[in-house]
Amino acid sequence: MQADCELIKAVLDGEKEAFAELVSRYERPVRAIAINILGDHHSVQDAVQDAFVAGYQNLCMLRNRDSFGPWLMKIAQRCALDWANRRPKEDTLETTPAAATEKPNGQLDEESEGLLSAVVKLPEAERQVVMLRYFAEHNVKEVAEIAGRNIGTVTKQLSRAHKRLRRILKESEI
Amino acid sequence: MTAKEPIESRLEKLGRAIGSNESLVANVMSRIDSIKVDQQKFAEFKSSSLLRNFIMNRFTKFAAAAVFVVGVVFGLKVLMNDLARPAYALEQTLEACKNKQQVHFTFSKDDKLNKAAWVEYDTDGNIARVRVDMGIDSNGEPCQAIVWQGGHTKALDVPQKNLRLFDDEDYTARILHFVHRYDPRQAVEYIQKMEQKGDVKIGIEQPPDRSKPIAVTVNYEPNTFLIDSNYPPMREIMLVDQETKLVTAVEVWGPGKDFGHKENEWTLLGIYRYEGYDEPFEEELFDLEKEIGEDANIIDLKTVGAGRGLEFTELNLTDEQKAVATVRALFEALIAKDYNEAVRLWSATDEDIPKVREKLKQLEEANINVVEIVSIGEPRFPMREWMRMIVPCTVAVEINGQRVEKKVEEVFVHRWLGHPNRRTANINLDALIK
Fold first, then answer.
1. What is the predicted pLDDT for the residue at B393?
2. CB-based contact (8 Å) between B120 and chain A?
3. Which of B94, B314, B363, B430 has the greatest number of C-beta atoms within 10 Å?
4. For the segment A116-141, what is each residue's pLDDT rounded down to a tens digit?
């Protein structure tokens, strides 16, 4: 598993395929950010694409290549907010149909939405490892390699994130 | 998804619900291609005009020649330095580790993270505090986390949320032994001593490519491997960074598959990776109380269980003698039908005691009387255990007035954490009933 910083170096050296790997790697984390802001499916796709394209265009400006993940998340947030501003106002009156179970492709039930908004509230480093671990489905060792951190650090960050999420969710129940 | 589900599975479900779009990569890459074409045109134009200017300029011609000469001189210097570089010796690693204040290492088995340790030293180089996480699962959660600091140990059983507090020199020695074993500084000193005694053979391989690590192969003779003495021949390959001379990993190899010894056939048993030197640890890493939260059970073993089991005051008794005495006391209580005493000597948690009473009641209802201890065999520790012993016994029982001798293989004698002279025992009573 190549670290993000290695892939970025390859992209900047002209290897386009390396960016495709970054897109696959961060697709779900970026989608998660977009869904949290936009909710609906179509503009999510657009925002996700925009985020990756903007990431590619600005890649040479990224100072710390190890922080690609959090940096991309910020871009994703900005792109999603742009799309949210472009939407007609009446869209916001739409009600989300209640559903008890998970739905495919970005339509979330109420509890999932709550959990997702809790994930988004995590500190940057914890959010990145949670997204890579659970959304992008990497194991701890891979997450450590991707993020350029120690395995021990990742395990601690995951464990802290679990606790923080439980607390956030508990508080939101009250 | 329900609020009662573990957070890990809720996150996994959320990940699946977020879903993915198969055409995303293709769409993004095609958009990037169109951008790239423009950039390429720009870059080609820019580089061709720059190159033309560069070649035509007299000053840049001179500068290029100067750069070439400097390059050749520098290259020769590097080459001479490399030739003059002394061969690696283990002392260089000792020197590099000498003043390190923190070391963090992990152990992975079959590529899965299994253990992690954080070790902090005081200014004299003695271990000041340690945290060890054992049985780490795929989410990075340990099954048990142990923190040792200043002679006091805290052991957190994560799934049960039990935090046990105790002071136990034997336990500490074992924890610290594990740490010493893979603390690079002490490990290197150890293998050097072993080499002098002829117990290990050390081979050093230093690749000319300085980006590749130095491999120090240590072959252990049988029964010389560090943790347990009854090991077969073992092999470790210590990887050392050529620049820093710090150990970056230790591969542990055992002979053949599942220790079935075959000459020159080795199986990789696991890898210790040194994740960081001198990277200060977060204070909360050593704060298990904070980590476990408010709903934890904090069990102070210094006070819990007082009055249970046999407390041996004669300090020169061996573990075996203590085990035999405990088993004898338990069977004698059963012979005397003193079930309160039997329960007192029994190894069980407070919650399990009613079950033990129930079993003893079954024994009585079945009209089974233990009447005599026929023999107590030689106690032994189960493989790689040191906190409990198995004691094979034969006792005579009367069933409906008939005397029968019963072999009871599963009699366990437990040593208590924090109470090295306290022993309790338990018996598989089914062996008497059936």
1. 93
2. no
3. B363
4. 889 988 888 888 899 999 988 888 88
Structure tokens at B193: 């001593």
Q: Taken in order A40, A43, A48, A49, is the CA torsion positive or negative?
A: positive
Best of B4, B14, B136 to substitute, by most chain A Cβ atoms within 10 angstroms, is: B14
SS3 B316: coil
Q: Which residues from A are below 8 Å from B108, CB to CB?
A: 141, 151
Chain A residues whose beta carbon lies within 8 Å of the beta carbon of residue B7: 162, 165-166, 169
Residue with tokens 């029964």: B223
Strand order through the sheet with B393-399: B368-376, B393-399, B402-408
pLDDT at B350: 76
Which residue matches tokens 């298990």? B288
pLDDT digits (tens, 9 = 90+) for B312-371: 988 789 999 999 999 999 999 999 999 999 999 997 777 778 888 888 888 888 888 999
The domain defined by A4-173 folds into: Rna Polymerase Sigma Factor; Chain: A (1.10.1740)
SS3 content of chain A, % helix, strand, coil (to 5): 75, 0, 25
**Token duo for residue B128:** 């000041």
The residues that bridge with B274 in the sheet, in sequence order, are: B105
* End-to-end CA separation in angstroms for chain B: 47
**C-alpha to C-alpha distance for B378 and B321, rounded to whole angstroms:** 9
CA B292 to chain centre: 20
DSSP secondary structure letters along A43-54: HHHHHHHHHHHH
d(CA B15, CA A133): 9
DSSP B338: -
pLDDT tens digits, A12-43: 888 888 999 999 999 989 988 888 888 766 78
Q: Please tell me which residue of chain A has the smallest CA distance to B3.
A: A111
Q: Pick the residue from chain B with its C-alpha nearest to A21.
A: B25
Kind of pairing between the strands at B419-427 and B144-149: unpaired
Whether domain B90-277 has CATH 1.10.10: the reply is no
Q: CA-to-CA distance for A120 and A31, rounded, in angstroms?
A: 12
Rounded to 10 deg, the angle between the A151-173 and A110-121 helix axes is 130
Contacts of A133 in chain B (CB under 8 A): 11, 139
ipTM of the complex model: 0.81
Would you give the distance in Å from CA B302 to the centre of its chain? Answer: 25
Identify whether the C-beta of residue B128 lies closer than 8 Å to the C-beta of residue B115. no
Q: Extract the tokens encoding B144.
A: 């048990």
- Per-residue pLDDT tens for A53-112? 989 988 887 877 878 888 898 888 888 888 887 766 544 333 333 333 334 455 677 888
Quick check: B200 and B179 in contact, CB under 8 A? Answer: no
Q: What is the side-by-side order of every strand in the sheet holding B388-390?
A: B310-311, B419-427, B411-416, B388-390
Instruction: Assess contact for B144 and B135: CB atoms under 8 A.
Output: yes
B274 touching chain A per CB within 8 A: no
Fold topology of B310-433: Nuclear Transport Factor 2; Chain: A, (3.10.450)
CA B241 to chain CA mean position, Å: 23
Q: Where are the domains of chain A?
A: 4-173
Residues of A in contact with B136 (CB under 8 A): 155
